[in-house]
Every structure is written in C-alpha cells, then in structure tokens.
Amino acid sequence: MSSEDQEETEAEEAARYEKLAQEWGEPYVDLDRYKPEAKALAMLPEGLVRQHGVLPLKKDGMILYVALSDTNDLQALDAVKLASRCMVRGVLASPLQLSQAISRAYGEGKPELSA
C-alpha cells in the first residue's frame, strides 16, 4: 500500500468517525489538528492511557475531556474517572488518529503541548 493510499484510508476513517459522532450526537475531535493541553496530559499516567486507548485533551475545572474511539467504553471512562478524580467527558476520535496522537504525546516521554 502506498503512502498516498494510506493517507486516503486515514482520511476515510476520520470522516467515518466524524459522521458517526454527528449521528450519535457526540462530540468529535480531529486529533491531527487538536493538540492536548499539558495539564490534561498530566492528569493520567501513560500506562492507563495506552491500556485503555484514551487521550486526555482538556481539563476544565473538575471536568476532564478525553478522546477515545468508543465513547460508550465504561471500563475506560471509569478508569479515567478513578485516576483523575474528575468528571469525565468522552470525545469521539478515529482509532488511527487516536493511536498516532498517543504516540506523539507519550512516545518520547515528553508530551506534545498545545500553546
């Protein structure tokens, strides 16, 4: 598969998840464009993030917004709630973008921070 074909597949997956979010009335995040906040990343240990496939995006008071590919994954949401001691709001993201964003944020041991 050429990189051009792979990019098309990534775009198709992102479009499919964005459409699902609209149909389900769920928020959606394009992780190729949105960078997680440093204070959100600091709320969860890397092991939990990788185990449950979640990415902390933003902390707003006592609410922690996390990206995940299944906003009905109660096990992941409960683990985040327990670890962060915050109310948790799930935001739908495509699995491929989520995996890549987790690697960007935690891959080198230094989070990629938003301005």
Descriptive notes:
This protein has 115 residues and is of the alpha+beta class. It has a single domain (3-106), classed as Type II secretion system, protein E, N-terminal domain (GMP Synthetase, Chain A, domain 3). The protein is 49% helix and 17% strand. It has helices at 3-24, 38-41, 46-52, 74-84, 95-106, and strands at residues 54-60, 63-68, 87-92. Strands 1-2-3 form a three-stranded mixed β-sheet. A hairpin with a 2-residue loop joins β1 and β2.
Concise synopsis of the structure shown:
With about 120 residues, the chain is of the alpha+beta class. Helices cover about 50% and strands about 15% of the residues.
Largest sheet: 3 strands, mixed
- SS summary, helix count: 5
CATH superfamily assignment?
Type II secretion system, protein E, N-terminal domain
Helix content: 40-55%
Beta-strand percent range:
15-25%
CATH topology: GMP Synthetase, Chain A, domain 3
Layout of secondary structure:
Elements: H1 3-24, H2 38-41, H3 46-52, E1 54-60, E2 63-68, H4 74-84, E3 87-92, H5 95-106
Parallel strand pairs: 2-3
Antiparallel strand pairs: 1-2
Which features characterize this protein?
single chain; 115 residues; alpha+beta; GMP Synthetase, Chain A, domain 3; three-stranded mixed beta sheet; 5 helices; 3 strands; 17% strand; globular; disordered C terminus
